[in-house]
Structure formats: C-alpha cells, structure tokens
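Example record

Each entry pairs one chain with its bound ligand, coenzyme A.
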Amino acid sequence: MTIENTIFLLKDGSVGTLCLPDATAENGKAMLRYLYQVSSETPYTGRSAEDVALLTVEDQVAWLQKSLDSKDSISFICVQNGQVIGSCEVELLLWKRCRHRARLGLSVLKDYWGLGVGSAMLAHMLNILRGFNYIRQVELEVYETNTRARGLYEKYGFRITSVQPDALQLDDGTMLDAYHMVCRL
Ligand SMILES: CC(C)(COP(=O)(O)OP(=O)(O)OC[C@H]1O[C@@H](n2cnc3c(N)ncnc32)[C@H](O)[C@@H]1OP(=O)(O)O)[C@@H](O)C(=O)NCCC(=O)NCCS
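Structure tokens for the complex follow.
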C-alpha cells in the first residue's frame, strides 16, 4: 500500500519523514542496515541480529516492493538525513470473520528513543487505520520487561487482554512473558 510522505518534528527540533520508499537497491541496503542495528540494540524485536544477518539486500528490496503492492499490510519507515531511524508495520487480517483486526509492529533506533518518533509513527498508523471503517481493533504483543513500549502503547489506548507465558527467550536463557494488547479504534 502506498503511503503519502508525512513530516513531523522530533522533540529535539529536527525533522523526520514517514514514508514508504521505492524498492531500489539503495533503499533495500538502508533497510537492512536499520534491521541489523535495531536487532543488535534490543531483544524486543524478537528477530535477533543473527537472524537479520541471514537476510540479503534483495530480500529487503522484495519486502519494499511487496509492501508497496500489498493489500494485507501497511508499512512505513521514518527517515532522517537519508538514514532509516524507525519502522512501523501493520498486518491486516483479510478473512471476512477477522477483517476487523490489525496486528502492529514498531521499532526505533536507540539513539532516537525518547524523541517522539515512536509516538509519531503510532499516531500516524492509527489515523491511517481509522480510515478503514471496518477495522475495529489493533493488536500487538509486548514483552513483560519492555516498560518503554508498554508506556507508549498505553498512552495511545492499548490495554492488556492476556498473557502468553515464556514467549521470548533472551540470550542468557531468561524467559519473558508476552502481553497481548488491544486498542479499540
Ligand atoms: C518502544 C519504542 C518504539 C518507543 O519509541 P520512542 O521513539 O522512544 O517513543 P517516544 O519517544 O514517542 O515515547 C513514547 C512514550 O513512551 C512512554 N515511555 C517512554 N519511556 C518510557 C519508560 N522508560 N517507561 C514507561 N513509559 C515510557 C511515554 O508515555 C512516552 O510518551 P511521552 O514522551 O509523551 O511521555 C522504542 O523504544 C523501541 O524501538 N524499542 C525497541 C523495539 C521495541 O521495543 N519495539 C516495540 C515492540 S512491542
């Protein structure tokens, strides 16, 4: 799905752009760099840096093209000075009985945490989803120790509906529960 470019001000006064860029090799490389960095900086993306290292630029070019063409997902990234600094994706459930549901994922590079990038992406995505009058709820999973993400989601009206025990295993073997959260649109 194509997305109109939208600019916003970060809390430090700099400008970020929310967009879904063309599926070029250069943009594929920028996406791969982003995924590698973000998965090295936090365990909460689920996918580890080792998993990302298996991906290729071609995979990311294909992901960009699929996102542009897709009817069952909405994706955009946040770019600043040519660098990808955040990413937000929603999977739409297409079966008639589940069409009211959307599943969200979100991440931001650590250097930019606390500057309002997560808020800007989440607010933008919720606005896009409100434009689909049949989508009634947005769902996600957040790991139990991820207080920053939980705080962000609660600020936008997400509430915990259930807990999945031992959903994530950290490198040291620690198991984390996942909270399933839902936001009614
Ligand atoms: C979670 C994440 C997306 C937040 O992005 P961000 O750009 O730092 O978020 P913002 O600066 O917009 O902060 C949003 C809100 O989060 C909440 N928040 C921030 N830090 C918090 C903390 N330490 N504890 C509790 N809530 C916190 C606040 O409500 C804040 O809003 P405010 O600034 O108006 O008070 C980012 O930290 C990230 O990418 N983390 C790693 C990947 C990840 O966890 N993704 C989510 C998977 S479910």
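The beta strands are 6-9, 15-19, 73-80, 83-92, 101-108, 137-143, 159-169, 175-184.
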